[in-house]
Each structure stands twice: as structure tokens, then as C-alpha cells.
Design goal:
Layout: H1 2-19, H2 32-36, H3 41-63, H4 72-99, H5 108-130, H6 136-142
Helix pairs in contact: 1-3, 3-4, 4-5
Length: about 150
């Protein structure tokens, strides 16, 4: 489910990149000053789309057998490292809706969806972190389960 959410995000960013637009569908309106402060709009959007794709791969690696081929510390870093920017973005969107501060334009529904997605990601990261002592790499190499 987290991977699907990240793929949707990447698709939305890619869609806007092809149009040379900042923002995200359903997000707040982007001011003219934000465009002047961004040297290459398409590059900025493609970068964010790429990060969304990377996040989808990280989410899948946490739940698929082939994820055991990656070093566990690297995957943990990816899982928990994704939380910080997602939580910061969610905080700003929620603040905008609840206190009418910021640029405006976020809907309450977008905030609820974002909060749900963040909770799912946190649950996935927590569950993966708690799976201590399981050698998933051996399961991948031998084709057998770990227990």
C-alpha cells in the first residue's frame, strides 16, 4: 500500500514536470515567486518524482523476498529516512488546513489521506525494524522461508 502511494506521488510529480508546473494535483496554488525562485521547474519535479520511485522501491524491498539482498542497515536508513520529509510535509499541510496559515489550498481530505499514508509508512518501518534476527538474505538465496 505504501508503494502504491509513492507511485501515485511520483506519477503526479512527473505529470506536472512534463507541463513545467510546480506543485501537485490537489495541492495549494503555487505563487509566481516560487517559479522565479526555482531555476529549473521540470528538473525539480523530476527529482521529486524520482524520490517517489525510490521510496516505492524501498517500501517493496521491506516486504518482498528480494529485499533481503539489500543490507539491512541500508534498508532501515531508507525506511526511517523517508519519514522525516514526509512528516514535515504533512505537518505543513495540516497546519495550513487547521489554522488557515500558509499559502492555502490544501483540502482536509488531502490532509487525511496524507496522515493515513504516513501512518501506514510508519507501521511498515516499525514492523520491519522489529523483525530482528531474521536472516531474509538466506531465505532468498535458498528459496526457503525463514521459519
Amino acid at each position: 500500500m505504501s508503494a502504491v502511494g509513492q507511485l501515485v506521488y511520483a506519477g503526479e510529480k512527473g505529470y506536472y514536470a512534463t507541463q513545467g508546473r510546480l506543485g501537485i494535483p490537489g495541492g495549494p496554488l503555487v505563487t509566481a515567486s516560487q517559479y522565479t525562485n526555482t531555476s529549473d521547474v521540470a528538473l525539480a519535479q523530476w527529482t521529486l518524482a524520482s524520490l517517489g520511485l525510490l521510496s516505492a522501491v524501498i517500501a517493496l524491498a521491506a516486504v518482498r523476498p528480494w529485499g533481503g539482498l539489500l543490507p539491512r542497515p541500508l534498508l532501515l536508513l531508507g525506511l526511517w529516512g523517508t519519514v522525516a520529509p514526509a512528516a514535515a510535509g504533512q505537518f505543513h499541510a495540516a497546519r495550513d488546513v487547521l489554522f488557515n496559515s500558509g499559502p492555502g489550498g490544501w483540502s482536509a481530505w488531502a490532509v487525511v489521506q496524507g496522515a493515513a499514508g504516513l501512518c501506514v509508512w510508519l507501521a511498515m518501518a516499525w514492523i520491519f525494524t522489529r523483525r530482528l534476527g531474521q536472516d531474509t538474505t538466506a531465505a532468498v538465496k535458498t528459496g526457503r522461508g525463514t521459519g
